[in-house]
Design goal:
Layout: H1 2-18, H2 24-74, H3 84-95, E1 104-112, H4 115-122, H5 124-141, E2 147-152, E3 155-163, H6 166-179, E4 184-186, E5 189-191, E6 195-202, H7 209-224, E7 230-233, H8 236-258, E8 262-270, E9 276-287, E10 291-293, H9 295-304, H10 308-324, E11 331-335, H11 346-357, E12 364-368, H12 370-375, H13 377-389, E13 393-399, H14 405-411, E14 416-419, H15 421-426, H16 431-446, E15 450-456, H17 459-468, E16 472-475, H18 482-504
Parallel strand pairs: 6-7, 9-11, 11-12, 12-13, 13-14, 14-15, 15-16
Antiparallel strand pairs: 1-3, 1-6, 2-3, 4-5, 8-9, 8-16, 9-10
Helix pairs in contact: 1-2, 4-5, 5-6, 9-10, 10-11, 11-13
């Protein structure tokens, strides 16, 4: 800018020097031109200066944005800990510098116990505060130079280089568990929060980052199966079990998509007349390597695979469709897994299945165990109450084995109780079991409930139960396909008509 003004002044002097004989008016015009030129030069200089400043600001903003992006790429914004990407880079760097012969690098995978409860009770801001406190505790527990990272949610990881061996890794994990022992202050109260820790060692368990992280995660899965805080090292046997389970889950997914899971129906008959009152749906899956799998094995696998709800709804839809084609007097008994009763929307989905298959709600009886009620009493009570009000019947199986059966009879809308098979099968040889069965029948009948017996094995048991006032029972563990049930019911109707016709003649 100053240079432009100087140029303008020199230009004016030059005009005086080279035109000495010009008149004053001509010189005045020359000065006007000089002023215009100076103003233009000044304007240009100011514009260039403003553009330069804007360019510098833009460069500064760009560098700040790049720095922020770099931080976001390698740092967890909530806790300030390194994230998965930075941890992975540090682990690769550590593996490029192997420990000495007697030392190891250790990878720890951590998952918090009780964190979901804090979120559910206090809300996500309290959960975030718990995570921040966890990060501070983990930093206090590790050695200087060890890396603590947050992978997301309540999942953390630790990289400890050059430990003296497995015992040193265990000692570090125990320090972490001890540091996590006191409750955390979050929301409106103190919350106990422990941790499960899975440990993989390099080089014994692997020499690349992916393998070590996977094996530490396998060990964490085992630690999480323990009650309370626990640490577990990776073991090949556990890895084999995890791989088998993964294959089984994939096989189940394929079987569900292909409709390869069969439903068998076990009749429940009137112990006095022998008429079939209800058929209990029993899912079976024939696995090529593991053989037949019933509901007791099938549903837990489906739950860990995230397939429990679609599996339950698909089987219920098929069973309701079968039942709709049977006699109007026959009902369907279908077991509902305990974890589904914690889903407040399961009642609406069950009613939607009934509507789609045109099965009246009164012809469906849902069976559940006491453990299903205990898991979430309020949600279960609300779900079952809504279904009962819609006409669906509710049965409590394995009755007599739970610690709170009387409470459930008083507070839940039940229609049927099913006496556990362990009492039924022992009643003819054990007087105490016979007394228990007699008392349970009296209790159920006194409350106006249908009383059914599970696992009736012979005619003597059937007669004893009928004499004591038991209404129904599953006899001799028979089961049928849907078509066999249909043929059986048609045959009984035909037989009944023949008998009535003979009596009339």
């Amino acid at each position: 800018m100053i240079g432009a003004v100087v140029v303008a002044a020199l230009f004016g002097v030059w005009q005086f020097d080279i035109f000495p004989n010009e008149t004053s008016q001509q010189r005045y015009r020359v000065f006007e031109l000089d002023e215009i030129f100076a103003i233009c030069a000044l304007t240009f200089a100011l514009f260039a200066w403003s553009r330069l400043r804007a360019q510098r600001r833009e460069i500064h903003r760009r560098r700040a944005a790049e720095e922020e992006a770099r931080i976001l790429a390698f740092e967890d914004t909530l806790t300030g800990l390194p994230n998965r990407r930075q941890f992975h880079a540090a682990l690769n760097a550590a593996l490029e510098a192997p420990p000495s012969a007697d030392a190891v690098h250790a990878v720890f995978m951590l998952d918090l116990n009780g964190f979901k409860k804090i979120n559910d009770l206090e809300g996500h801001p309290a959960g975030d505060e718990a995570l921040i406190q966890t990060a501070l505790r983990l930093r206090r527990a590790v050695r200087e130079g060890d890396m603590v990272a947050r992978f997301g949610g309540d999942e953390f990881a630790i990289l400890a280089r050059h430990l003296s061996g497995a015992e040193a890794a265990a000692s570090l994990a125990l320090r972490v568990i001890e540091e996590m022992g006191p409750p955390v202050r979050a929301g409106n109260g103190d919350h106990p929060i422990g941790t499960g820790i899975g440990i993989a060692l390099a080089p014994p368990d692997g020499t690349d980052a992916e393998t070590l992280l996977r094996k530490a995660d396998v060990a964490l899965y085992r630690a999480k199966s323990e009650s309370g805080s626990a640490l577990r090292f990776f073991e090949e046997e556990m890895d084999h079990h995890i791989r088998e389970r993964d294959k089984l889950e994939r096989d189940l997914r394929g079987a569900l998509d292909a409709g390869a899971i069969e439903i068998r129906y076990q009749p429940r008959i009137d112990l006095r007349t022998g008429a079939a009152k209800s058929f209990e749906a029993q899912p079976y899956w024939h696995h090529g390597e593991l053989g037949n799998m019933d509901a007791a094995r099938l549903f837990p696998i489906a739950e860990t695979a995230g397939l429990l709800r679609p599996l339950f709804e698909e089987l219920l839809r098929r069973a309701c469709g079968d039942t709709a084609s049977w006699s109007e007097e026959v009902t369907l008994s279908f077991a509902i897994p305990a974890s589904l009763l914690r889903d407040a929307g399961i009642g609406l989905r069950i009613l939607a299945v009934l509507g789609a298959t045109r099965l009246p709600p009164r012809r469906l009886e849902l069976e559940l165990s006491e453990s299903a009620l205990v898991a979430d009493l309020q949600t279960a009570k609300r779900v079952l109450g809504d279904l009962h009000d819609a006409g669906v019947r509710v049965a409590l199986n394995n009755f007599g084995t739970g610690y709170s059966s009387l409470y459930h009879l008083r507070n839940f809308k039940l229609d049927t109780i099913k006496i556990d098979r362990s009492f039924v099968q022992a009643m003819t040889a054990n007087s105490e079991s016979a007394s228990i069965v007699r008392a349970l029948i009296g209790l159920g009948s006194g409350l106006g409930l249908t009383v059914a017996a599970e696992g009736v094995q012979d005619e003597q048991q059937r007669q004893l139960l009928s004499r004591e006032g038991c209404h129904e029972g599953h006899l001799f563990a028979q089961d049928f396909s849907a078509q066999e049930v249909c043929d059986l019911l048609i045959s009984k109707v035909a037989t009944s008509r023949t008998v009535r016709s003979s009596s009339a003649n």
